[in-house]
Design goal:
Shape: globular
Order of helices and strands: HHHHHHHHHHH
Number of domains: 1
Radius of gyration: 18 Å
Distance between the termini: 19 Å
Largest sheet: none
Strand content: under 5%
Structural class: mainly alpha
Number of helices: 11
Length: 219
């Protein structure tokens, strides 16, 4: 369970979701954009996630006290995370995104056109599970819980993953005026620190997964 929570938190700061946050919070109607993106993304992730988990539970490779697929999953996910972290930390165009923008860019103008586009983005960007969710789904599959508990774990995992979408959205619903001010501050901070936050998470969790893979081989 602690590993699932760690992976869900790490998934929340995956570069793509951070970019969506930055884009949505710059639009004139951020709550609307966030809500439709969340609907599309959550429905897609939970649906595909359940298919993967139940398929793993029925797979002989993931049965038993020790899964032969464990080391491969951990090593692959860890190496991919480290590679993505390296790319994000060194790519010049990505590095420039830390600098505050003077006006809305093409991506911001595109996603601000309507809720339907935000919903479609939520679907398309989440059709393929990310690196950390793949490991999380693998862990859930190996728990071999009943259907209700499995569904609850998958839904809970993705609710945590979308926390940076959900928290400002809930805040807008509860206190829109105050949230507008706080979100502006948060977005300015995120603009300056998103890349560093993503890179630190990718490196830390990537190393953890590689070590976890070594432990799975030795154990």
């Amino acid at each position: 369970m602690p590993e699932l929570f760690l992976l869900a938190l790490a998934s929340a700061v995956w570069p793509t979701l951070l970019a969506v946050d930055l884009i949505a919070l710059r639009t004139p109607r951020p709550a609307r954009i966030l809500s439709f993106f969340l609907l599309g993304g959550l429905a897609t992730c939970v649906g595909i996630g359940l298919v993967i988990v139940f398929a793993l539970q029925n797979s002989s490779a993931f049965r038993g006290a020790r899964s032969v697929a464990d080391p491969a999953v951990y090593f692959t996910a860890g190496i991919v995370a480290l590679m993505v972290g390296r790319i994000v930390s060194t790519h010049p165009r990505l590095a420039n995104r830390d600098r505050p923008k003077q006006g809305p860019g093409r991506s911001e103008r595109l996603i601000a056109r309507g809720a339907a586009l935000a919903f479609a983005a939520g679907v398309v960007l989440n059709i393929v599970p990310g690196v950390f969710p793949i490991v999380g789904l693998s862990d859930i599959g190996q728990l071999d819980y009943g259907a209700a508990a499995t569904v609850a774990l998958v839904v809970g995992f993705y609710l945590i993953m979308f926390a940076l979408i959900e928290v400002p959205l809930i805040a807008y619903l509860v206190a829109p005026a105050r949230t507008a001010v706080e979100v502006d501050r948060f977005n300015n901070w995120l603009t300056r620190n998103a890349r560093r936050l993503a890179v630190a998470t990718l490196y830390a969790v990537g190393i953890y997964l590689v070590v976890r893979g070594i432990v799975a081989v030795v154990a």
